[in-house]
Amino acid sequence: MKDLFFRPGRNCQAVTKVDKGALLVDGCDYFKALAKAISRARHSILIIAWDFDGHVRLQPDQENAPTIGELLRQRVEEVPDLEVRILVWSVAVVHAPSSPAELLIGDSWQHHPRIHLRLDTTHPIYASHHQKIVSVDSSLAFVGGMDVTVDRWDTRKHSAHDPRRICPDGSKYAPVHDLQLMLNGDAAALLSKVARMRWYEATAEVIAEGPGAGATFWISDYPAAFQGCDIALSRSCPRWGSRAPARESYHLTIDLLRSARQTIFIESQYFTAPFVGDVLEGLLQADEGPEIVVIASMSVHSRLERWILGENRDRLIRRLAACDRFGRLQVYYPVVPSDDGEAPILIHSKMIIVDDRFLRTGSSNLNNRSVGLDSELDATLMASQPSQSRDIRLARHSLLAEHLDTTVEHFADCERQTGSMIETIERLNTKSRRLRTFPAMTDRGPRRPVFGTRLFDPMAPFEPGWLLKMR
Question: Which residue(s) pair with 48 in the sheet?
Answer without folding.
Answer: 87, 133
